[in-house]
């Protein structure tokens, strides 16, 4: 029989359980409004790093919530990436197609104060007390340090985060780069935005413009480093504008991801940047000639008249452009048969006279079911759609248009194939315009337009800045496939970092003014050191009316722009090189002829860019970054490292000061030798401009031609400038229009010049498999301090040489020489 007596231990246990349950009920508060518990949206900062992990060349640091990834890319490049809640986005970039991993070695060190990731050239420090990230060189000299920890703010409306990075700004720190910003060359004190924008007749300090290049170079205490903020969203950069002690960059979305690129020289930074984003492929040789454009040359009779004008005036020209009026109702890939009844015949006859035809193609496709391009794009769902699945529509030149999604590889393939008929007609190049993208009235696409983004998905907030780049990528890749082994020529108005892999650029719709001549000079230098080497301006200005003097001074500057094209709006007077009469026609002819004489030098400089990552235009600060005053020089530049140019940018100017970097320089026109490291006064009558050649240079020269390929090259002139110290020069040669150079079918010639008071030696070495058709060199020795009595080539004496009144010495010899000695 069971006992009815209560168990004291069981009773006690039940009482405790009941009390605990009562306490829990008292603590629980049911909220009628759950939103009351949501914290306000504020900026959040990295906390204290408490852990580090390593996976190969990737290092991860966390404060318990956020995570930072540090990747050793090369010995000079370290990538930093932030995930606010430790979840990184997919690692994909249009700017960096493939992340190089070339570091010789790296280590992770931890002590009481910091974590440190090191290569043999650079250290990345993660400070334990506050998550500040800094960088130093192998001598432990700090080059970059956070002013506050990296931070972010939730974007409630669109999702994701606004992301911010703020670094200290030293008192004498200077900043360069960021693409085509129309402002002073040194960006110190500026606040600038990246958001591709159609900026017709832009003005000084107007921002943003057509391109978004989120890469800048800092120079402080003689040491350079770069920051590449690889984020395609709308981004801003503050170089000590709001607070002189701080430099910041931030974006409206995406990840806080940047590359620290160590120098110590600006040239090192640019070369390393090109290892990330790529270099420009070798252009067809004709693309380095003079190009003529207008909105618009039509009908066909007008095009022929322009071509005839060049040949009758004996002014060299290689390219003639057709703007939107060649199309049927501005429909891309069509012809207006009223204006151009037989385009294939016209293009063929222009080609027979040495002219390449370049046509414009815009992204807006007219909504018209009778238009094959629209019908096919619609059927295959290739056009951009908005978030609620309506097509993105907007008005541009053809009227109501839809727009291909060039972030979709299938669409790019389709678009590239559409060029087949144009290529079969003989079109040699394509000009992509309006691809910011521009939309009349609205400016551009709404933010909610969706993009395939190569499978990584995104709204237009993410895709806007790369839309134009992906359009010209589609154009370039399509042309390359259709043209087989021939090099395409493309030009684009809009772009993002890496666009140089596919296209040249111009600075957009400028104005016929002296101010814009100055702006164009700065913009081309800035583009060149920002990774976009094949750049130029609309010579003479797109809008407005230049007089003969302004146009001629612009031609002179354009002679030393990588891309040389005159272009003007349809409501302006025509401006061909002969439009202003004499003396302007003769001077314009002289400089365009000079361009063609220098093509082997210009082409060799392009090879130095393509193969080695050198910029083509180099500002003075790139030559001498240790001198603070040079941080503010923006008139002079060198084309390559051998030819220094200083455009004349004031009306009526007959003399100007020119700064020459250290070393000896020759006045190109007079052969006068000038010591560098100083400003010199140079006469600048209209028929000339300051051009100097670095002592020791070997400047190759072709005979004057009316177009590239006009004449068979029978010999190459080598202009050799005496030096009393060793100087290297290069000459690159290949077929000029194929991709054979990718299989080493080229010739890279290296010349080494050295001299003394009694002799001069020239050595030549060769690399590559190409054999030029000419047999010999015509040597022109400039600046010899002695009268030569003996010239020996590879041990054999040259009996015939000529002493000229200007003290130059000329002789001819085989192109295959190895060693030349000229002695007193």
UniProtKB/TrEMBL annotation:
The family this protein is said to belong to: Belongs to the glycosyl hydrolase 31 family.
Molecular function in Gene Ontology: carbohydrate binding; hydrolase activity, hydrolyzing O-glycosyl compounds
Entries under CDD domains matching the protein: GH31_glucosidase_II_MalA, GH31_N
A biological process term (GO) from this entry: carbohydrate metabolic process
Domain Glycosyl hydrolase family 31 C-terminal, residue spans: 613-699
Protein name: Alpha-glucosidase
Keyword annotations of the record: Glycosidase, Hydrolase
Superkingdom per UniProt: Bacteria
Residue span, Glycoside hydrolase family 31 N-terminal domain: 68-238
Domain Glycoside hydrolase family 31 TIM barrel: 281-604
Pfam families, sorted: DUF5110, Gal_mutarotas_2, Glyco_hydro_31_2nd, Glyco_hydro_31_3rd
Organism: Mucilaginibacter gossypii
């Amino acid at each position: 029989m069971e006992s009815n007596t209560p168990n004291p231990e069981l009773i006690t246990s039940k009482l405790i359980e009941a009390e605990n349950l009562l306490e829990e009920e008292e603590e629980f508060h049911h909220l009628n409004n759950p939103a009351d518990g949501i914290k306000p949206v504020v900026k959040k900062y990295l906390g204290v790093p408490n852990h580090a992990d390593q996976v190969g060349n990737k290092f991860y640091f966390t404060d318990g919530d956020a995570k930072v990834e540090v990747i050793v890319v090369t010995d000079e490049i370290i990538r930093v990436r932030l995930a606010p809640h430790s979840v990184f986005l997919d690692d994909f970039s249009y700017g960096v197609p493939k992340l190089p991993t070339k570091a010789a070695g790296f280590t992770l060190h931890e002590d009481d104060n910091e974590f440190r990731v090191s290569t043999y050239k650079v250290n990345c420090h993660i400070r334990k007390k506050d998550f500040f990230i800094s960088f130093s060189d192998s001598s432990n000299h700090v080059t970059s340090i956070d002013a506050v920890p990296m931070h972010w703010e939730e974007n409630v409306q669109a999702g994701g985060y606004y992301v911010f990075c703020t670094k200290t700004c030293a008192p004498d720190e200077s900043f360069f780069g960021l693409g085509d910003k129309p402002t002073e060359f040194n960006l110190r004190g500026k606040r600038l935005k990246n958001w591709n924008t159609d900026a017709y007749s832009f003005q000084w300090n107007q921002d943003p413009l057509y391109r978004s290049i989120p890469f800048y170079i800092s120079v402080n205490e003689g040491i350079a480093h770069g920051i590449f903020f690889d984020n395609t969203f709308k981004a801003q950069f503050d170089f000590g504008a709001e607070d002189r002690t701080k430099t910041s960059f931030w974006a409206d979305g995406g990840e806080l991801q940047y590359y620290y690129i160590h120098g110590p020289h600006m040239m090192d930074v640019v070369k390393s940047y090109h290892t990330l984003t790529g270099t420009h492929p070798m252009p067809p040789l004709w693309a380095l000639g003079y190009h003529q454009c207008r909105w618009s040359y039509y009908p066909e009779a007008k095009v022929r008249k322009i071509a005839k004008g060049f040949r009758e005036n004996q002014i060299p020209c290689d390219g003639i452009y057709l703007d939107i009026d060649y199309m049927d109702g501005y429909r891309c890939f069509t012809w207006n048969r009223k204006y151009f009844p037989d385009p294939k015949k016209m293009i063929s006859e222009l080609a027979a006279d040495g002219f390449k035809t370049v046509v414009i193609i815009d992204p807006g496709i007219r909504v018209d079911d009778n238009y094959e391009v629209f019908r096919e794009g619609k059927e295959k769902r290739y056009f951009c759609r908005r978030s609620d699945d309506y097509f993105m529509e907007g008005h541009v030149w053809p009227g109501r248009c839809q727009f291909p999604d060039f972030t979709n590889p299938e669409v790019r393939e389709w678009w590239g194939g559409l060029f087949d008929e144009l290529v079969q007609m003989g079109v040699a190049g394509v000009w992509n315009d309006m691809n910011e993208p521009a939309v009349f009235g609205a400016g551009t696409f709404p933010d909610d337009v969706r993009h395939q983004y190569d499978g990584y998905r995104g709204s237009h907030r993410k895709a806007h800045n790369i839309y134009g780049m992906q359009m010209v990528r589609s154009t370039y890749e399509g042309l390359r496939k259709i043209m087989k082994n021939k090099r395409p020529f493309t030009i684009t108005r809009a772009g993002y970092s890496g666009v140089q892999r596919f296209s040249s650029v111009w600075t957009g719709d400028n104005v016929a003014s002296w101010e814009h001549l100055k702006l164009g000079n700065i913009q081309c230098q800035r583009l060149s050191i920002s990774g976009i080497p094949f750049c130029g301006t609309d010579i003479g200005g797109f809008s407005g009316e230049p007089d003969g003097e302004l146009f001629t001074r612009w031609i002179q500057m354009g002679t030393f722009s990588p891309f040389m094209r005159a272009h003007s709006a349809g409501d302006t007077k025509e401006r061909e090189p002969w439009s202003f009469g004499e003396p302007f026609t003769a001077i314009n002819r002289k400089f365009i002829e000079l361009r063609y004489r220098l093509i082997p030098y210009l082409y060799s400089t392009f090879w130095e860019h393509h193969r080695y990552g050198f910029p083509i235009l180099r500002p003075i600060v790139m030559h001498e970054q240790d001198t603070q005053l040079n941080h503010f020089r923006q008139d002079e530049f060198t084309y390559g490292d051998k030819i220094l140019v200083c455009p004349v940018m004031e009306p009526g100017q007959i003399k100007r000061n020119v700064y020459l970097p250290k070393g000896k320089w020759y006045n190109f026109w007079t052969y006068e030798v000038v010591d560098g490291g100083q400003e010199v006064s140079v006469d600048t009558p209209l028929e000339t401009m300051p051009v100097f050649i670095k002592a020791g240079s070997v400047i190759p020269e072709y005979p004057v031609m009316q177009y590239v390929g006009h004449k068979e090259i029978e010999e190459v002139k080598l202009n050799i400038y005496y030096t009393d110290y060793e100087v290297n020069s290069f000459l690159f040669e290949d077929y000029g229009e194929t991709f054979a150079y990718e299989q080493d079918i080229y010739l890279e010639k290296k010349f080494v010049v050295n001299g003394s008071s009694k002799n001069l030696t020239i050595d030549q070495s060769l690399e590559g498999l190409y054999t030029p058709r000419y047999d010999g060199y015509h040597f022109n020795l400039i600046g010899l301090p002695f009268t030569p009595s003996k010239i020996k080539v590879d041990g054999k004496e040259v009996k015939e040489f000529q002493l000229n009144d200007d003290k130059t010495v000329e002789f001819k010899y085989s192109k295959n020489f190895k060693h030349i000695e000229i002695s007193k």
